[in-house]
Amino acid sequence: MGLMTDEVLKRIITDIRPWGNFIQYTNNEICTVKIITVDPNQTLSLQSHKKRDELWVVLDEGLRVELDDETLTPKPGDQIFIPRHTKHRLGSIGKRARVMEISFGYFDENDIERYDDIYGRIKKNKDISDTEK
Asked: At 7, phi and psi to the nearest 5?
């Protein structure tokens, strides 16, 4: 799912312990971590970023992910790497669902180029964030 480069795979560590295990996604790196919740039957804009890569960790069932020309229906625990400049979109299928987003690189909510948006937020010559109304 997504392009999992050697660089990204080196960042992800699974450590087995007597009580179970943990997965470590970053270690002393500058990054931004968000939990994105998509309401039932809603979708984010088809977008790309110039200044950051993203790693999405799927938390719930019921998501649809578009990566360039590929459409995925990931399961909880799936990891999807989105390199900068990749067109991507996240949507829910019938119920509220979440992903954990780890952004690597310079994070700025204005670093969004929109290609399609059901909420009418495509602006020429101006990037705006999903958090703006």
From this structure: -60, -40
Please answer whether residues 90 and 43 qualify as being in contact, where contact means their C-beta atoms are separated by less than 8 angstroms: yes
Range of the domain at 67: 6-116
Q: 12: number of CA atoms within 13 Å, CB side?
A: 16
Are 121 and 128 contacting, i.e. CB atoms less than 8 angstroms apart? Answer: yes
Residue range 31-72, pLDDT digits in tens: 999 999 999 999 999 999 999 999 999 999 999 999 999 999
Domains identified in the chain, total number:
1
Distance CA 54, CA 99 (A): 11
Q: Cα–Cα distance between 57 and 32 in angstroms, integer?
A: 14
